[in-house]
Design brief:
Radius of gyration: 16 Å
Bound molecules: iron/sulfur cluster
Shape: globular
Number of helices: 5
Number of strands: 7
Order of helices and strands: HHEEEEEHHHEE
Strand content: 5-15%
Length: about 160
């Protein structure tokens, strides 16, 4: 029998199916900047226009457990971090904002799940970490870096995708 992610659209999935799709890479816990020709400085963003370019930084939310790549305040996250944007079936139009390796973006773009995805590896994240597709060991935290310095931490590795 074909797995649910091959037979259902993202909108058709149940809540547990939707949740299980997340690979736990934590790339969405990195701060992002937009580069807008009309502005001199790059700014922290949660929105983007057609003329703007999105850059990932290696600056992660202070509440990220960077070894497990898990949120340490999951139940309180929206209270503690108002800018913490969680992708849901209701805001799928924001999927562009996720890295290209993000499971939701891959499925939305018809690219399927990669071989390193935990769902294809008995729920384990080890293949993903080994493939360098998570943030493990690559980040600094936002409570250590002034926001105006984020530009110095722009990186391209979050854009990498495999398979
Ligand atoms: S980038 Fe996508 S797949 Fe990775 S942790 Fe965030 S929501 Fe999950
Ligand atoms: S609050 Fe948790 S889920 Fe939100 S950005 Fe921070 S670590 Fe990630």
């Amino acid at each position: 029998m074909e797995p649910f992610w091959k037979t259902k659209s993202l909108q058709q999935m149940s809540r547990p199916e939707w949740e299980s799709l997340c690979d736990g890479c934590a790339k969405c816990c990195l701060h992002k900047l937009i580069d807008d020709d009309e502005q001199e400085d790059m700014v922290v963003t949660t929105e983007m226009a057609d003329t703007e370019q999105l850059h990932f930084t290696s600056v992660a939310c202070q509440y990220l457990n960077d070894k497990k790549c898990e949120c340490s305040v999951y139940l309180e996250r929206t209270k503690l971090v108002p800018s913490c944007v969680q992708l849901t079936q209701d805001n799928l139009d924001q999927v562009f904002y996720m890295p290209s390796s993000c499971s939701y973006r891959r499925l939305q773009e018809g690219r399927g799940l990669p071989s390193w995805h935990p769902l294809l590896n008995k729920g384990k994240k080890s293949k993903m970490h080994q493939a360098g597709m998570s943030v493990r060991g690559k980040v600094v935290f936002d409570n250590m870096i002034a926001e105006e310095l984020y530009e110095d931490f722009i990186v391209v590795w979050p854009l990498n995708d495999l398979d």
